[in-house]
Each structure stands twice: as structure tokens, then as C-alpha cells.
Give the backbone structure.
Amino acid sequence: MQIGFLNYYASILQARGERATLIANNIANANTPSYKATDLPFEAAFKAEISDQAAPSQPISEVLSQLSPEYRANLPVGLDGNDVSLDFERIELAQNGEALMGAATFLHQSTADLVMALRPNPGGN
């Protein structure tokens, strides 16, 4: 038996984790000459997939698994060719962390509810 929300939230958590790694790499390379900030554009892909059609063309877990990191566009470039803004990256990391924790909390509560629903009624009713 496949439980759809488990695959969905596993994909969300994986994508958020990959995005956190990319943002951390951006922060670590803030002083590297010619470094270009990268990001995982899963929010745009997610919004496009759910807004374009009444019935998505493929499961969102497949959409998220097909994403690859992209360079961020339209960022100001410093004299050394680096376009990383530490303030921007810290904000993105915090927002991503909050979204990751929200998804993890929802998944935890959903699985706890499912386990409770599958347990036999102790009162016998």
C-alpha cells in the first residue's frame, strides 16, 4: 500500500535539504573571486506544476527529483566577480529552514495520526 503524502513530503524535505546545502555553499564562497551563487528553483517548478493544470502531468515528487541547481540571475556583482550577498543568503537560509521544519512537523504529525488511526480501539467500541 502506497501512502501518497509520504512520497510528497519526502520529496519536499529532500529538495529543501539540497537547497540548504546550495545556500551554505554560497555563504562559504562569499569571498571566492568569480563565484556565482546557485539555487534550486523548486518553488517555481512547484508553483508552475500546480497552477498550470487541474491535473498535474506528473507527481510533484518526480518534478522535484528532476530539478538541478541554477545560477541566480540579476544579482549585483562585486569587483572580484562574486555575486554572493551574505545578507540575502542568510535570509534565504532562514526561510528555507523554516519551510523545512514546517514540512517535517507536518509529516511527523500526519504519520502519528495515521499510526493512531491504525491502532485497535482500546475500549473495544
